[in-house]
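Incident log, entry 3
Record: Sel1 repeat family protein (177 residues)
Problem: checksum mismatch between cached and fresh output.
Input:
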Amino acid sequence: MLQKLSLTALALIASTLLHAADPLTDAVRAIEAGRHAQAAQMLTPLANGGNPLAQFRLGALYYQGHGVPEDEKQAIYWWKKAAAQGYTEAMFQLGSAYLFGSQIAKIVPDPDREAAMWYFQAASAGHAEAQYHLGLLFLAGKGVIDSRTEAARWMRKAAAQGHPEAKKALASIEGGK
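Fresh output:
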């Protein structure tokens, strides 16, 4: 009888542990439900603990000013932490922040070059949107040399992943030779 009771208790404990709340999943659900302040509170200890997804998500909340004061510098801080761990989406967002941000572009000497550097890192890791954006930078000569060859190279990589705008841009680049 005692052995049966012990097995039942163990099964109950195991079931409880399996269904225990995952703080990161709960934070993402809070974001999806529009409970941004709650999500930020849940993400902060995870981000401080080194979780790259938590760092990325917390950075996004700061960038958009959802649940926390809008703060591009804080967003950059968290995205750089996630990027340092190889989180490709954070690298892409860093590139976009330097290219399109209103405050962050003022704290570096050449925001276009900074954007190109982060897009390059994400693009080199296979991020199709970063490959497309990097191709656009090469077409415009923003932050990088003006090079149709390099633009086509990166557009080709993005197009190979099914990126529709990259396919159009590539056709235009190659048709305009």
